[in-house]
């Protein structure tokens, strides 16, 4: 089994903490509440993939392209060269309209012209999609999620990697269950205030097809000018 390295070995321990990269063909779920670190971790994954030469597409619900570049620059993740070389493509997905938001994530070409897709704010995409959103709370959202996952099988079967971030508050438990069950890699993020510090951790709920041992719990912080910094580790 081949793996996509998330790089930056000389800078941080993120790639080492996840066992040397994500297995090709895997669905990676990063779940956590507001402020848990989902977006910055997804940004680190995208930047590291691009640094390794992997073509990656980022779809995000919050930041415009300019805001994204500025945010990445503040973390010392200089994505401009990757954007110009089209190793990294960035799409802002506004959720204030009637346009389909989920269909582009499963269509051939488009966001899948590269080898990896990072969908940051996947829960918001689901909630605001004109077909998926109205199903939430109806009791059929598990079937709707299963249908979406079925359409995602094609790019994953081709060896591509999909990383999705979800705030569980944006979806129902019934919608989340199929997503959690389908994820090959499932990271559950938490944060807590300890004195003046905000400590973040990723609990590794599942990691199928690991290349090397993966940390059970990944403690990390987000530092201006440095990005993600791994702070503690517990090896499985």
From TrEMBL:
Domain of life: Archaea
Protein name (Swiss-Prot/TrEMBL): ATPase domain-containing protein
Pfam family, one: ATPase
MF term (GO), any: ATP binding
The keyword Cell inner membrane is assigned to this record: no
Record's keyword annotation contains ATP-binding: yes
Cross-referenced InterPro entries: KaiC-like_dom, P-loop_NTPase
Keywords: ATP-binding, Nucleotide-binding
Domain called KaiC-like: residue spans: 17-82
Gene3D superfamilies to which the protein is assigned, alphabetical: P-loop containing nucleotide triphosphate hydrolases
């Amino acid at each position: 089994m081949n793996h996509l390295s998330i790089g930056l070995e000389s800078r941080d321990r993120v790639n080492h903490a996840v066992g040397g990269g994500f297995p090709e063909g895997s669905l990676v779920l990063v779940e956590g509440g507001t402020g848990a670190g989902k977006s910055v971790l997804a940004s680190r994954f995208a930047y590291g993939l691009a640094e390794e030469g992997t073509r990656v597409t980022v779809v995000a619900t919050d930041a415009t392209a300019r805001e994204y570049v500025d945010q990445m620059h503040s973390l010392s993740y200089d994505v401009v060269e990757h954007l110009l070389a089209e190793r990294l493509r960035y799409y802002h997905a506004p959720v204030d309209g009637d346009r389909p938001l989920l269909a582009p994530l499963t269509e051939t070409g488009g966001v899948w012209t590269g080898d990896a897709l990072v969908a940051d704010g996947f829960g918001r995409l689901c909630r605001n999609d004109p077909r998926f959103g109205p199903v939430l709370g109806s009791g059929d959202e598990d079937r709707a999620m299963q249908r979406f996952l079925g359409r995602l099988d094609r790019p994953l079967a081709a060896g591509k990697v999909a990383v999705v971030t979800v705030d569980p508050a944006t979806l129902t438990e019934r919608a989340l269950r199929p997503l959690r069950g389908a994820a090959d890699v499932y990271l559950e993020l938490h944060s807590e205030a300890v004195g003046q510090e905000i400590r973040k951790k990723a609990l590794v709920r599942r990691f199928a097809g690991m290349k090397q041992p993966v940390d059970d719990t990944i403690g990390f912080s987000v530092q201006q000018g440095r990005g993600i910094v791994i702070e503690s580790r517990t090896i499985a």
